[in-house]
Specification:
Layout: E1 6-8, H1 14-28, E2 32-37, H2 41-55, E3 60-72, E4 78-89
Parallel strand pairs: 1-2
Antiparallel strand pairs: 2-4, 3-4
């Protein structure tokens, strides 16, 4: 899957990302990956569900991957941050 079919979830309202997902589906076609880390994970799930239930009713969740990433802090310590990838397809 091409990297440009990926939507990274941050702190913006969920509807901004829903619009990005719908736009990506209409231009690119088959699969769109929604990625998020930490506190944005719940927003990523909201984006996937809003997209599936309101805008693209024929889309399905093809895959969900969860993982933990090690992030290095500025003071040299590391912290674990959860991450999720949700793959939506038609």
């Amino acid at each position: 899957m091409a990297e440009n079919n990926t939507i990274y979830i941050g702190k913006k309202p969920a509807m901004n990302y829903v619009l990005a997902v719908v736009t990506q589906f209409n231009s690119a076609g088959e699969d769109v990956t929604i990625k998020a880390r930490g506190k944005s994970i719940s927003r990523a799930v909201d984006v996937a569900e809003i997209t599936r239930n309101r805008f693209l009713k024929d889309s399905v969740v093809k895959n969900i991957r969860i993982s933990t990433e090690n992030l290095k802090e500025e003071d040299g310590t590391t912290s674990n941050v959860s991450s999720i990838e949700i793959v939506l397809g038609k």
